[in-house]
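Data card: per-record layout.
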Amino acid sequence: MRINEYNNIDEFKREFSGLHNQEYETSWAVDFVYNGKKYTMTMEQRASDKFLEHASKILGKKLGNYSVCLVDKSLPKDDLSDDEFHYIGWYDDIDDVLENCYIEGRKFKDVIMDDNTLIEGKD
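The structure for this 123-residue chain is written out next.
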């Protein structure tokens, strides 16, 4: 785990946009720790098709390709929980995540750029 080393939000966007580029290796997921809690943002489907259908009905909308969730097996399950994942939301693209996802009352873009956010899997 390392302290956030992104110099600006564009660096993060290039890495996690899902688009191939020469400058950055495309990443499909980022695990990070913010205020002592572990989160994940991913383009990889983590939930079952049945769960996604259920969540789509609850939310009344088609779910986007990006999901953001709190990772904590100890929390009680609710309608948007599956195994250890407690879904914050599903988003259409990286810009949608950055602008419309809120973690502990802060926009995702502010959380991911916070110098105290720890990024897992990066050395």
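Known properties of this structure: Residues 55 and 80 are 6 Å apart (CA to CA). The two ends are 7 Å apart (CA to CA).

See the next section for split statistics.
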